[in-house]
């Protein structure tokens, strides 16, 4: 009996010890899990940012600078090419998974399609958590980016519809430099006086790159009517078969006929580019604010003249607005992102500070916290002697009236229609009148299909 009780007591002690050991073991496991969880939580959040410009044109420096701020919040950059294949790749990735946190849209049509497809997070719902205030970073014109009460993107870059010109050619021809409010008639007279030579010695007074959608003829309409000129004010029909469009198209054909400007066919077949046309002395004036970075590239484009800046001309002296400014490089947060608040923090920093690293590549910051002197220093650096800095600050960096795309029903289809129909005008295969009637009818049909 005694032995049995001793054994029983011993078993009880062992069992109790086992239970206690079990409790102690359980506590130890919990501590280990807690430590593991703490270690896991110490892992940095890594944001995946997609954009279309080359890594060595700012994104590398952006990532390096941002990643020094907070070791727990990092960013990595992936480039997609801004063409049909590249944008399709971006859209498919946004549709299928969470691997993108922040992304650029490089034009309003693609941005609107991504908003309509549900790929974009409403950024205004993240403003407070990021300490972001819209009115501290942008002028009142940013309100044009609001869609259905929300901001689905914030632009990093401001565009100016800018003409770059060879000051030496103006001086040699005795032609005054363009004024900030010059008209189309003054522009045409200037281009005529600067045009000279034949064949390989030909110098054009004006050059516009080989864009599609009829832009060599139509781009100047932006200054008078804004970037939505192809839509009626209510957006429910096209606005192509109009006197304004007819007039600007005939003006283009006149310039080509006089030899002031190369034809669209010549530009595209001979692969003429604005940088080479300006910087090798083949054109006195060219369109394209991005050519600023080529002017700075004296290794590939050696030249000994200064480049000045002029706005696109007013089509008439009494037109109410001169829309020469818009926005691009729109940053959005993927609606599927697992880190939307952190993504908004990155967007805020990029807009307010990160543009320091991309501005040198001719990207004017949209944020109003960047003053003109700082932007001039960032963009032109120690190469200011290559430019007329007075017109650079008054025109290129200043801009004027802002216009943003709002009507985008069937926008991609309308661009295709304009390309197809205006190609016929440019080739001399269709009259201006027929082109406008056909384009209007086709565009109206596409708009009606989407309403």
Automatic annotation (TrEMBL):
Signal peptide: 1-21
Coiled coil regions in record: none
CDD domains documented for this protein: PBP2_TMBP_like (cd13585)
Protein name per the record: Extracellular solute-binding protein family 1
One Pfam family it belongs to: SBP_bac_1
UniProt keyword rRNA processing, yes or no: no
Keywords, in A-Z order: Signal
Lineage: Bacteria, Bacillati, Bacillota, Clostridia, Lachnospirales
């Amino acid at each position: 009996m005694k032995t049995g009780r001793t054994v029983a007591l011993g078993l009880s002690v062992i069992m109790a010890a086992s239970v206690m050991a079990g409790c102690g073991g359980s506590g130890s496991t919990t501590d280990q899990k807690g430590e593991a969880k703490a270690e896991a939580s110490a892992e940095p959040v890594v944001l995946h940012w997609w954009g279309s410009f080359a890594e060595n044109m700012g994104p590398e420096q952006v990532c390096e600078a941002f990643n020094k701020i907070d070791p727990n919040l990092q960013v990595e950059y992936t480039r997609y090419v801004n063409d049909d294949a590249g944008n399709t790749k971006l859209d498919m990735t946004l549709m299928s998974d969470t691997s993108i946190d922040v992304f650029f849209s490089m034009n309003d049509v693609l941005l609107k399609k991504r908003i309509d497809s549900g790929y974009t997070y409403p950024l205004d719902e993240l403003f407070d958590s990021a300490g972001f205030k819209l009115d501290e970073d942008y002028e009142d014109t940013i309100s044009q980016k609001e869609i259905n009460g929300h901001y689905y993107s914030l632009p990093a870059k401001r565009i100016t519809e800018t003409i770059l010109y060879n000051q030496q050619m103006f001086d040699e021809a005795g032609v005054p430099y363009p004024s900030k409010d010059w008209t189309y008639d003054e522009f045409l007279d200037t281009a005529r006086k600067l045009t000279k030579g034949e064949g390989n010695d030909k110098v054009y007074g004006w050059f516009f790159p080989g864009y599609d959608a009829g832009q060599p003829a139509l781009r100047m309409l932006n200054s008078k009517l804004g970037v939505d000129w192809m839509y009626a004010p209510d957006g429910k029909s096209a606005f192509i078969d109009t006197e304004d469009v007819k007039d600007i198209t005939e003006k283009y054909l006149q310039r080509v006929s006089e030899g002031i400007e190369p034809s669209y066919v010549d530009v595209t077949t001979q692969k003429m580019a604005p940088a080479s046309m300006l910087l090798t002395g083949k054109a006195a004036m060219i369109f394209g604010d991005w050519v600023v970075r080529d002017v700075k590239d004296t290794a590939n484009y050696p030249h000994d003249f200064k480049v000045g800046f002029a706005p696109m001309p007013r089509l008439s002296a009494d037109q109410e607005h001169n829309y020469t400014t818009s926005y691009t490089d729109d940053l959005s947060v993927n609606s599927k992102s697992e880190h939307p608040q952190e993504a908004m923090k990155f967007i805020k920093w990029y807009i307010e500070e990160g543009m320091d690293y991309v501005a040198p590549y001719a990207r004017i910051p949209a944020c109003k916290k960047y003053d003109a002197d700082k932007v001039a220093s960032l963009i032109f650096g120690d190469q200011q002697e290559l430019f007329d800095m007075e017109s650079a600050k008054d025109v290129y960096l200043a801009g004027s009236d802002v216009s943003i795309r709002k009507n985008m029903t069937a926008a991609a289809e309308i661009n295709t229609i304009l390309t197809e129909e205006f190609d016929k005008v440019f080739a001399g295969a269709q009259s201006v009148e027929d082109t406008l009637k056909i384009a209007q009818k086709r565009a109206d049909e596409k708009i009606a299909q989407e309403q």
